[in-house]
Amino acid sequence: MSDTHGKDVSTIDAHSDAPLYPLPPHHHRLTDTDPRAARRAERQVAAMFALSALCIIAFVVGYVAIPTTSFIDLGPIGVLQTSNLVLGATFGLAILLIGLGAIQWAKKLMADEEIVDERHPVGSPIEDQEAAAELFATGVAESGFVERKIIRRTLIAALALFPVPLIVFLKDMGPLPGTSLRTTIWQKNSRIVVDVTGQKLRPEDLAIGTLVSASPEDLDRVQEEAGTQNARAKASIILVRMRPDEIKSQQGDGWDVQGILAFSKICTHVGCPIALYQQRQHALLCPCHQSTFDLSDSGKVIFGPAARRMPQLPITVDSEGYLVAQSDFQEPVGPSFWERG
């Protein structure tokens, strides 16, 4: 190895075992020579780990006991929600104290003698592996992890309680999905309308090769009542029209109307909306990761990372000649989830 001026800065001289740049003399720390200083440092580290554990307990108590309607006025800083302030302070202090304790432990109590190790080829022989294991055991012994029981126990307590806030946070992720992942707002006789404009559709409104983004007629009402966009995220569909003799297969008998097919608009890979259609190949292309589905053959995957076909919506016409759904999708739309059978 060389420095910027081309001088050799190798640690060991090629013709001698003496180092070119010897390490400076080692200076013992106060904790190395004074047992009382070592015990004092040990108590400091243990106190930090113990305080971290107490902060986690305080976090859980604050989460349960402090109502979200409580606020505190901090003057120039402003008015803050009391629960947010307490949760942030206790969890932040818990992390900080574990870090500070580890730093104090390493600086004051762990072995700090400098050593030089020659480089060696990758793939160490068995002897070196055994030596490394022995060095690891020596390092464990020198760290005092086994010997200094109070540090070991308080560290284990702090780390054992550390994940608790992460578990508590799960409560704020909302209710379990239940059957909502398996169903949409489509139902029998739901009219199909052009997305955004709300125009009702008849078969004669779609020419061969046309693709239209559509949704249920009552989508806006459902979204307004629910106050979310969840219904649109699952119920959005595309309509395509091809010649009936070009349809190789469908996901159910009689699910088309004069060559008009309806499929979910949500990619089964990671949920990107799709509206890129190659008319000649009847291929629906996802712009995110290039998953490609053959709409003339039951929406099967023909390319890309998607593992499931595009769900088809069974459609028909009502007494007024408008396109309507025969039922909801017969399989979950969107990306796969682990509970899916």
Instruction: Sketch the topology as an H/E string, one letter per element.
Output: HHEEHHHHEEHHEEEEEEEEE
Report mean pLDDT, rounded to a whole number: 88
| Shape field | elongated
Number of helices: 8
Ranges with pLDDT <50 over ≥5 residues?
Answer: 1-11
Q: How many beta-strand elements?
A: 13
Largest beta-sheet characterization = 5 strands, antiparallel
Terminal Cα separation, in Å?
Answer: 59 Å
Number of domains: 2
User: Residue share in helices?
Assistant: 25-40%
- The spatial strand order of the largest sheet comes to 3-4-5-6-11
Beta-strand percentage range: 5-15%
Indicate the structural class: alpha+beta
**Rg of Cα set:** 34 Å
Q: Quick summary of this structure?
A:
With 341 residues, this protein is α+β, with helices and mostly antiparallel strands. The chain has helices spanning 30-33, 35-65, 82-108, 126-143, 149-161, 164-169, 219-226, 230-235; strands at residues 71-73, 79-81, 192-194, 211-216, 237-241, 260-264, 276-278, 283-285, 292-294, 300-303, 312-313, 315-317, 323-325.
Description of the molecule:
The protein has two domains: 30-117 and 124-173, no CATH class; 192-325, 3-layer Sandwich (Rieske Iron-sulfur Protein). The chain is 33% helix and 13% strand. The chain has eight helices and 13 strands. The strands form four sheets. A five-stranded antiparallel sheet has the order 3-4-5-6-11. A four-stranded antiparallel sheet has the order 7-8-9-10, with no helix packed on it. Helix 2 (35-65) runs antiparallel to helix 3. The longest helix is centred in the first third of the chain and has 31 residues, at 35-65. The chain is elongated and about 95 Å long.
